[in-house]
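3.2 Worked example (two chains)
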Amino acid sequence: MAAADPAPALVALDNAIAQIDLLISRLTASSTSSADVPVAAQPKAAVAGSNGEKKTSGKAKPAKPAVPASGGENVDNFDKCDIRVARVQAVEVHPVVAGLRKFVPQAELQGRLVCAVCNLKPAKLAGQPSEAMMLAGSHPAAEAEGGEIVKLIDPPQDAAVGDRVCIQGRPASAAPVKQLSSKVWEKVAGLLRVQGGAATFDGQALVTGAGGGITVQGLVDGSEIH
């Protein structure tokens, strides 16, 4: 399911393409640069003089930005993703591109807060640019239209456009990869599930950087998120 990158782009889903205003400045996407990180006060480096006395060089090395400890391969893969809160700005009917239209009414998409993967490789769907992917949960249901029930992932209503999505208890990665490979995303998506009405990764709740939980309404436990 497609949404837009930091600039408005089309969300190509069933006869509906949602242009999402991510309002994500890549200043936030690249997160903390070395210029943003305060340099910790450090003692001047000591250098021995010709008379054996210690002198100071007057130069101090800048502190390196803190990098969260590795949480294993699964968490490291998740940290490569740039998942953010986005807002659907516009929905347009498209005669070819398939996706959400039969599951989510156009009026429900318009202006809605969603969660989008923003660093997937840009692609074209039926000639339409797709630069991000809107996340939704689903599970099979013979009685439902299309044979499955699909629900969008909901950020907290007080979330801001551009807020990063991270694993609860772990800060968002300071440096997600610029372009996420499809193989890494497949591994990540394979561990995204609905549990107790919440979006989880490998059994851990997903939240925004501000701490609000990511929810999924109307799906049974174990439903996939993709």
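3.2.1 Second chain
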Amino acid sequence: IDPLQRDLLTLKNASPAKVRKIDGRFPLPLPTPAKAIIQAQRQVREVPREDTAMSGPAAGPSAAAPPIESPASPLASRTPTVQLPLLRQVLVGTSAEFLITDSPLQSTSRLPPLVLQSSPKSLEPDWSILRNPANVALMSRNRLEQEVEELRAMLQCAWETVKRERAIYEGANAQLVLQDTHLEELNEQLAAKEVKEANPLKKLMASKMARCMTDNIKRDLKKQKEDAAKRRIEAEAEQVCAAEREKWREAEKVERASKQKAAIAKWEQEAQEAKRLKRKQPKRPAVTKLYPRAPTPDHLKPRKQREAIAANRREQEEQEEQEEIDIKGAGESGSDRDSESSESG
């Protein structure tokens, strides 16, 4: 403010706005589903009522209230595996009730926002009293009473800190139960969707175009599934064949190279011998022609080539059978003509 007017800077004008002002304390309030789960957990575990455990400054941890539920509670005699569905039942009537219904989850089905909190250090007791102990032998009675009161106050503060931390941990565990239940529902819904997409018959039946499912459609779908399985098996066999073919090529290449090196070594030896005897030098052998690349065996060739070879073999066998039939037919017709001529003579 220029020029400065001190009469405008009053305590009332400098206070926070009431609309944005928040009055609260730790632990922070939790959503309704988390509170319901906390109540059920206390009943299951028979946790004492901690909010009334410290009613005054003279109370201590031993002054705890009786459990919320008696030992005869139906929740107390169940195993943890059975307790989890029972904990979910307490969500009835809360904002997370959609987790226990049969209707599928939607984009509007959202859990309350997480409440992440930790106890501030400013609320912790003054631990310097323990680090710097006083000499009790030199204290007067009044000083001892004052020391006891200070220690009692710090113990009260420590107990409040313990209660606050327990409440924070309890709220975090309750929110973890909510999140885990939500994730399980999403996982089940996703698994059902994947199974539906993997089965073409169910997918067709669930679509709006499924008006009449006849045996022909079922037969076609079954044939498509069998063909897909057959193609998958053939692809796996082709991969195995390709690996064996590559291994055979490497072995054949090594063997061919060793033979060519042996032929060159033999030629070099003969050339040295001819030079020593002053004879005509032998011609260098063409090792690539002498030891060419071996053809790939039929059983290691690609699938299409194997099918073509098998088709050619079947054709040749059919031609040979047809030729044998023609030769037999020609022989039988010649013998018939000879018998007819002998009878006429």
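3.3 Remarks
Residues 215-276 form the longest helix (62 residues).
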